[in-house]
Structures are given as C-alpha cells and as structure tokens.
Write a structure and sequence with these properties.
The complex is a heterodimer. Chain A contains ten helices and 20 strands. Chain A is of the alpha+beta class. Chain B is built from 14 helices and no strands. The longest helix of chain B has 43 residues, at 253-295. The two termini of chain B are 22 Å apart. Classes of the chains: A alpha+beta, B mainly alpha. The interface between A and B is medium-sized, with 41 and 27 residues.
Chain lengths: 352, 301
C-alpha cells in the first residue's frame, strides 16, 4: 500500500518538528528517513502511524485520507527502538497479542492463531523461543520478536523507529542485512527511521534526508552519496573536507589552488564552499603536475581496511582528511612528517 | 564481572572501603539497641499486656459487642475507602504519567495535600462542611441525611487521609515505564480497556498491591481525622483506634491492649506482605538487569 503525506506541519511549543513536509512512499519500497536527532524523522513516522497528531496537513493511505483514522484502525505495524515487548507475556503471547485483541467476529479461532504465530516465529527464525519471556532473550532476538508481533496483524505498512539503535555494532550489522532480506520476501511498504547513514545506505531502496523539519533530498542511496543536493547532505552523508573558496567563472579558488566548478560558469566573485570526499583525493610522493597540492602528513590512523590520513597544507591552516586503501601504504611508504602531494579527483562547489 | 555480580546480589565486601571491626560493632549495637527500645519493646508490651489476664479475658475483650462493632466499622470504612482510592489512584497516576496537560504539577501537589495537612484538620473540614452548623448542614438536616457523627463521615475522613497512598506509589512507577507499551498495544489493534487490563495493569501490579497494602493499613489505623468526625458513640461510630482509646481512658487496660494487639498484628502482616512484594519486585528488576547485561555479551542474534 502506498503512503502519501501532504503539507505536514507539527510544532512542540516553539520547536518546529515538521515544516510543510510532503512525501510519497510507493508500494512495496523500503524507505529510510535519515537525519540528525531533532530533524523531525521520528515525529513524521509517528504521525504516519497515528501515534502523534499533525497540526496541519494530511496522511493518505493508498490515496484515502487517513488523517483522522484511529491508530487501532490504521493497520500499521510499528517497531520501537526499545522493542516494547510485553514483559509479562511469553514470546508466543506477545506475537499473538494483535490477533487475540480483535473483536470476537473477526478473531481467528485458537488453533489458527497458534498456527499463524508459529509461521511468524519461523519467518524471524526464532520458533524455538516461543515459551520464553522477553527478559530471557538477547537484544537482537527481542527486536526480531517485536517485528514478528508487528507483522502478526498483517499490517499494510511497517514502520520502524530506529530499530537497531539499541543494539551493539555487530548485532546491528547482522540484523539490518537480515531485515533487507526479509523485506525482499514479504514486500510490505516499510519506512524506517535512522540517524546512521551507513545503515540507511545498506538497507533501503530510497533515502529521505531530513534536517530541521524539512526534506533536504530524496533519492536512491547511490544518488544521495554521489550527488548530494545540498551542503547539509554532503556533510551528513559520509566524511567530507570543506574548503572556503571564491568562485570565478567556473573555477573555485582556494588560496593559490583552484578546483573546477563548471556548474557556476556565469558566476564571478562569489563566496563558496568546496566539498571533497576523503577517498576522492589521490596522493603522490612526487608532484606529477601543477594541480597537486603540497602537504605534510600529520597523522596516520589505521582502522581496518582503510588508512585515514591527516595532511596539513603549507599555505593554510586547514587539515585535509584523506582515506586510502590499505594497499597503498606500502607503495607510498608513508610516515608522519613526510612531504606528499595531493590532488582531488572529484569535488562539488556550493555557493554560500 | 565480579563487580557486576556483586551489585546484582547486593553482597559487596571490600576491605579497602570498610570500617574497622570495633566501629562496625559499635554502630550495629547502637542501631539494634535503639530499634529494640523504640520498636520491639512496645510491640512486645502490647502483646504481653493483652494476654496479661489470660486468654479468656483477651477473647472476651475482642468479642464483646462494642469491640465487635468497632472492628466491623473499621473493616467497612477500609472496604469502602481502599477501593475508592485504588480507582482514583490508578486514574490519577495514569493521567499524570501518560499524558501531558496543563495543571499537572498542581494535581501532583494536591494529591500530596493529605500528607501535608494534620489529620485533625482533615476531620474538621468535614465537620465544617457537613456538621449541623456547617455549609451543607441545613440541607442535610432537611433531607434527613447524617454524615458527621455517622458512618459516612468516618468513611469520608478515612478516604481523605488515605488518598495519596496508591497514587503516590504508582506515579513514579508509571512515569518510569513510559507509554511505549501502550502505544505498541494500540498499533496492534487493542482498545483502551484491553490495553489497560492486558498491558498496563500486569506491569504495575506489584506497585499497585504495595500501595493498596499501605493504604489499607492506614485506613484501619487512622485516629485523628476519624476521631473528629466520629462523635465516638460506642457501638455506633467507634472504630478500632477510637475504641482502644476509650477503653484505655476507662482503665480497662487488658481490653484496650487486646484490641490494640489486633492492630499491631495488622501492622506485622502489612510489613511482611510489603517485604514480600518488595522482594518480588526486586527480583523481577534483577532479571531485567541481567537480561540487559546479557545483551552486551550476546553472540549473533
């Protein structure tokens, strides 16, 4: 089922959580709402669920206005960051809850409920835990049970609020891959909220980047990463170097150095910021052309497969962050204090 | 791990931080002496005095009509006041913990009022309102209704005094638990009653029981407020505490202590139940903590 929100407005006192937000969530997609804390992503999710009331605007489920439909009737599955499993119920009773609270006319008979619960527990691969209580499960298991419970009522949409936020790094990675696979199996329209850009990149079909109650960019993970629409998105998605510059006829001047900025061809004398990703910088020990910037290696950090370098340019105070594949370490024979030459392979310039 | 396990079981002995042996003995002895002098001794005295003239006198004292009536009236007052305050306490705690509204702080303060005000004043309020010369006195007289110096007054005064117990117990508990579980139940299609009885109530049951027990103990033991509104008509408006006072003033010590022993027994039962509930709640909390601890060491999900 598709979801649409139109001109949503929501304020908490003086704080504007959502500022005229309109969005489409097509049927069957897994969409990530990504942004820093306080950007309004959770509020948006809760308004879609009906747990929060918008000050203005409307929510449409499959083209029908659902703004005033009670949460109970919306048929949304909601997964909470801290699982919200019912502590005094077994895993089985937790998953069965949504079916057992139905009015008598529509409530399935007991054997059917049991069958359905076991199907769901199999789906989340935890059938053997049916008789346990939530406190006997690990965090990852609890979140999968919470998901099974949400799916039990056959929701038309699945809403997940920072579903992996309370888990440790390794479990989080396993679980998000698992969620992606699960979504490929069941294809229910899903929206999940996260502040972790890596998580959004890995799991979702589309990402909605939000900031201060507004939408900054909507697009496929690739597009968001490769072609950020605004300085905010550039900054928020991945590491980035930023340089204050002046644009003159298609070139961004940073001190004596210049970067191509063909998108600003007609502009002259404008203040701008140039963004360069740390992995879009190549390093040489010798200058192989006049477009290389001389710099000194200030720091080397080896974290896993990537080498993080901090360079200082002789002419300015800016630190340049560079990420290199581990293999280049041998080749370049890097050490702190060494003279190197850097060249951006790709950059993007935004006028201020 | 050892520190974690220690704090879970509550047994931590660290030679680097503990006091010298002599100091420990002195402190413990002082505490024990004080306890025995002010708590254990009076309790023992109550029971010794009660049985001083033998079992026959004891049973006669608690079964004679006036005493039996006092016991019955106390039970009636508690049987009405406690359920009322349970319903009110649940409603107030629910409103305060789960909703944001104007005047919330005022409501919390008002709930504490009976704790702050002297019980005698609580009794006087009802005399002022419903007494013969009170605000509603004429109207009540015309309609032949008696509140002050009658059972309704005693029930009202008891309710006023025991008003905060359940609410006070539940508010912090429900605030700590937040609204996530109720929201989960709502998204799963449960209605308000189902959410309350199947989700909220089970998660607060120990706190609620604890509040009820304290409320009941106070309702049965209340003296000040009830003594103002009761009029102390023997066999009609005397509750157990009032009956004890009258017996004592009439120098019927054995009888006074016999009835008092019932109240003391109630206190003991209350304390035992209270400790059992605290133990139960602590154990559930410990399980939750352990589960959280296991989270940090888990293998892949």
């Amino acid at each position: 089922m598709s979801i649409e929100v139109r001109n949503l407005q929501k304020a908490f006192g003086n704080f504007i959580a959502l500022d005229n937000v309109s969005l489409d969530f097509p049927t069957g997609e897994l969409v990530a709402l990504l942004g820093p804390s306080g950007c309004g992503k959770t509020t948006l999710l809760r308004i879609i669920a009906g747990l929060e009331q918008a000050d203005a605007g409307s929510v449409l489920f499959h083209g029908e206005d659902a703004t005033d439909v009670h949460v109970r009737k919306r048929q949304v599955g909601f997964v909470f960051q801290h699982y919200a499993l019912f502590r005094h119920m077994t895993v089985f009773d937790n998953v069965a809850f949504g079916l057992t609270v139905r009015p008598r006319e529509t409530r399935p008979p007991k054997p059917e409920i049991a069958k359905r619960v076991h199907e769901l527990l199999k789906l989340v691969q935890l059938d053997w835990l049916a008789d346990r209580y939530p406190h006997q499960l690990s965090g990852g298991q609890r979140q999968r049970i919470a998901l099974a419970r949400a799916l039990a009522v056959q929701p038309k949409v699945l809403l997940l609020d920072e579903p992996f936020g309370a888990l440790d790094a390794k479990v989080r990675k396993d679980l998000r891959r698992w969620l992606r696979k699960l979504h490929d199996e069941i294809h229910v329209t899903s929206i999940f909220v996260t502040h972790d850009q890596e998580e959004a990149m890995e799991v979702s079909d589309r990402i909605v980047v939000m900031n201060k109650g507004r939408i900054e960019q909507i697009g496929a993970p690739e597009a968001i990463y490769n072609d950020p629409a605004s300085p905010f998105v550039y900054d928020f998605i991945g590491q980035v170097n930023l340089f204050h510059s002046r644009v003159e006829q298609g070139w961004a001047h940073i001190g004596e150095y210049k970067l191509p900025a063909p998108e600003h061809n007609g502009v002259s004398g404008a203040e701008a910021i140039a963004y360069v990703r740390p992995h879009d910088i190549e390093l040489r020990t010798q200058p192989d052309g006049d477009d290389f910037i001389p710099a000194i290696v200030e720091n080397i950090a080896r974290t896993g497969p990537v080498l993080h370098l901090e360079l200082r340019n002789a002419g300015s105070a800016d630190v340049i962050q560079v990420d290199l594949p581990r293999a280049e370490e041998h080749h370049l024979q890097l050490r702190v204090g060494q003279q190197v030459y850097a060249r951006p392979r790709a950059s993007k310039v935004f006028l201020r | 791990m050892s520190a974690g396990a220690g704090s879970l079981t509550g047994v931590v002995s660290n030679k680097a931080t503990t006091e010298p042996f002599a100091v420990r003995v002195a402190l413990i002895t002082t505490a024990l002496l004080f306890l025995s002098l002010f708590l254990v001794l009076p309790l023992v005295a109550v029971f010794t005095e009660a049985f001083a003239r033998g079992l026959d006198v004891y049973f006669a004292a608690i079964t004679e009509p006036a005493a039996a009536h006092a016991i019955k009236l106390t039970l009636i007052a508690a049987a009405i006041a406690v359920p009322c305050n349970v319903i009110f306490g649940l409603a107030a705690a629910w409103a305060i913990a789960k909703f944001a509204f104007r005047g919330k702080q005022l409501l919390i303060t008002l709930i504490d009022l009976p704790f702050a005000v002297s019980p005698v004043i609580a009794g006087l309020i009802y005399v002022l309102l419903f007494g013969a010369r009170g605000w509603f006195g004429d109207w009540l007289f015309e309609n032949d209704l008696r509140i002050v110096f009658a059972v309704p007054g005693i029930v009202l005064a008891t309710m006023f005094v025991t008003f905060p117990f359940v609410a006070r117990e539940l508010i912090p508990l429900m605030q700590e638990q937040g609204t996530e579980h109720e929201e989960a139940a709502l998204t799963l299609g449960a209605n308000g009653w189902q959410t309350f009885f199947r989700v909220t109530l089970p998660s607060i049951k120990w706190g609620l029981l604890y509040g009820i027990i304290l409320c009941n103990a106070r309702a049965m033991g209340e003296f000040g407020a009830v003594s103002v509104v009761s009029g102390k008509i023997r066999g009609q408006t005397n509750t157990m505490p009032l009956h004890i006072e009258i017996l004592y003033n009439e120098y019927q010590f054995a009888a006074a202590f016999a009835v008092a022993s019932l109240l003391a027994l109630l206190a003991l039962v209350t304390l035992i139940l209270k400790s059992a509930l605290e133990w139960k709640a602590a154990r559930e909390h410990e399980l939750a903590v352990r589960a959280a601890y296991a989270d940090n060491q888990e293998s892949p999900p």
